[in-house]
Structures are given as structure tokens and as C-alpha cells.
Amino acid sequence: ANNYRVLMEAGPTVLPALKRSRIPPEDIDLILISHLHGDHFGGLPFFLLDARLMTKRQRPLVLIGPPGLDERLVAAQEALFPGSSARALPFAIDMRTLEAGAPSEGPGFAVTPYPARHEAGAPCFSLRIECEGKTIAFSGDTEWSDDLAVAARGADLFLCECSSFERPLKGHIAYRDLAPRLAAVQVEASGAKRVILTHMNPDMLERRSTLAHETASDGMVVIL
């Protein structure tokens, strides 16, 4: 929005993924983190190290995530690169905390967190992002809930986790349970206009061609 670039989640492979997509890491203005599991925030130590040593970043960086992100980030930095958390960065970090139902605003956009049914040792959220007249809903990791339905309502794009095909996984959604719920969400007049499934385990990935719903893939570009 307005040349302001947002990265949503930063898993361990975030740097090679950005570079493979020809998105310079130094062009990221804001990083949103839905919850504090390693596959969603574990790339931050690498991102910050790259910014300090390789790209020599100068521009400020905004980090928005659940309560406890600052402590968990320091712990991850020290586990991976001892002493790195104490090294001064050549750029400012504006760390903000998500609070359920309270929008966080930036240049031309707003993100509102909704409680997610997932456990990560700190609050977990689904996110609803509004910018330039478009709305993107992101489930994060969660079981289905009324809060998730509210977060997705009327969205131009709903990125929804679907970890398994049939076998229920605690804190996640199985396709057999999700499909009828998505039908209900999309049938409503205020339903999400487009749904893309993500966060898929192997049993979901091997069935991608047979599913009734669109699925995400690495390097996929979506134009709203």
C-alpha cells in the first residue's frame, strides 16, 4: 500500500524465499507475525543478521506480533547466533504488540487481530488486513471458530490454513471439516470473495488436483 511493503510471517526459509521471488529483504517495511511457533517467526534472526551484515539496512523496520515476541526473538537469536541480540543495529526497530480486536495502523493500511484456537506459549491470532480498499484475511494456525469466520467475512482474499485432509490435528483444520464451512462463508452475501488454502501437510498436497478449492504454491502471485 502506497509503496509500503508488508511481509506476513517469517519462517526459517524467509530469506531464500524472498530472494527467489526477487523481493529485496531491505524493501520490507513491516513484518507481521501471527503467533510464536518457529515456522512462523523463526526466520527473524536470519532476517536481522542479513540486514545488519549484508544489506547494511538503514531504514526503520516495524515488527508487529503477539505479546512476548520481543523475549522470544532474543531467545531465538541467542540460540542461533550467541551474542547477536546485544549487537547494535544500524536501523531502528519499532516493535508493536497485537491485541485481539484492536487495529494496528500503518501508512495506508490497518491490521486487526482475532483470537486463534492454537497454542504457542503466547496468544495466537488470525489477521484481517485492510489496505487501498482491499481486505485480506489470514487464518494463521487455528481450528475453525466464530472469530475466524468474522475475520474472513467480506474479505477479498481469505488465506486459510488446511493442515490435513481427514485426520484432525489439534490447533489446525482438516479439509473434511473446512470444506462445508467455506461453502457457508462464501454463500453468504458478506462472504469471502476468494479462498486460497495454505499450510498443507503431505496428505493435502498430494490431493491438490482433486480439491474443490484453490491452493497456494511457492512463488504464487495473486492480484486482487
List its traits.
224 residues; alpha/beta; seven-stranded mixed beta sheet; 7 helices; globular
Distance between the termini: 13 Å
Structural class, by secondary structure, is: alpha/beta
Number of strands: 11
Q: Compute the average pLDDT.
A: 93
Number of helices: 7
Quote the beta fraction.
15-25%
Sheet with most strands: 7 strands, mixed
Order of helical and strand elements: EHEHHEHEEEEEHEHEHE
Cα gyration radius (Å): 17 Å
Poorly predicted tracts of residues: none
Overall shape: globular
Strand order of the largest sheet: 5-6-7-8-9-10-11
Q: Percentage of helical residues? A: 25-40%
Write the layout of secondary structure elements.
Elements: E1 6-8, H1 14-20, E2 30-32, H2 38-41, H3 44-53, E3 61-65, H4 69-80, E4 93-97, E5 104-106, E6 109-115, E7 125-131, E8 134-138, H5 146-152, E9 157-161, H6 175-187, E10 195-198, H7 202-205, E11 214-215
Parallel strand pairs: 1-2, 2-3, 3-4, 8-9, 9-10, 10-11
Antiparallel strand pairs: 5-6, 6-7, 7-8
